[in-house]
Amino acid sequence: MKKNIAEIIDVSNEIYDKGLVSGKSGNISARFGNVVAITPTLKSLSNLCEEDIVLVDMDGNVLTKGKPSSEVNMHLEIYKKRSDVNAIVHTHSPYATGFAFSNKKLKRLEGFGPIVTPYLQSIGYEKPGSDELAKNASEGLGREDVLILKNHGVICVSDCLKEAMLLAVFVEETAKTQFITLMLNSVEDND
C-alpha cells in the first residue's frame, strides 16, 4: 500500500506543478480492491505526505486518520459503476475548465485513443461535494474516460493512476489548442 500511496503523492505533485490544479482544488484517488486511497480535503495537492492520504472503504467509512476530499462520494460512485476504473484524477485546469464555464464544447482530438464521439461528454452543474454531483458524474461517465463538469472542472478515469494523469494533461493541452484556434479564427485577416 505504501508504494500506491507514494504514487498518489507523485501524481498530486505533478498535476500541481503542471498547473492542472491550484490552491487547494482538485482531488485524486486510486482503488485497491475494496479500499480507496484519496487525497484529503482542504489541503493543496502540492507537497502532500503519506499521512495526508486517507483510506476509505467502498461505503465511505474512513479507515485512517484525516478527512477525505469533499468529493469522496463522487469517486466512490464512479468506482461502484465502473469495475474497469481504478484511478480518478479530478482537476480544475484553466483551459479545460474555461470550456466548462463556456457554451463551447470541447472536441476530442487524436492522441489518446480512438475518437468514438466528436466531443467530450459533459454534465450540468451540481454543487461540489453533493450527492447529485456524485450520481450525475458516475452516470455521465458511462463508458467514457473523460467528463467535463459544467462550471466546475474535469474528471479523468483509467485503470491506473499514471494513465488518468496523462489523460488529464492531454485534455488540458487539447483545450489549450482549441482555445488558441478559436482566438485565431476570431481575428480578422488584414492581408
Task: Please provide a written account of the structure.
- By secondary structure, this protein is an alpha+beta fold.
- It has one domain: Class II aldolase/adducin N-terminal domain (L-fuculose-1-phosphate Aldolase, 3-Layer(aba) Sandwich), CATH 3.40.225.10.
- It is built from 5 helices and 7 strands.
- It has a 7-stranded mixed sheet, sandwiched between helices.
- A hairpin with a 2-residue loop joins strand 1 (27-32) and strand 2 (35-38).
- The longest helix is centred in the C-terminal third of the chain and has 26 residues, at 161-186.
- The protein is globular and about 60 Å long.
- The mean pLDDT is 94.
Produce a short descriptive summary.
This protein is α+β, with helices and mostly antiparallel strands and 191 residues long. It is built from 5 helices and 7 strands.
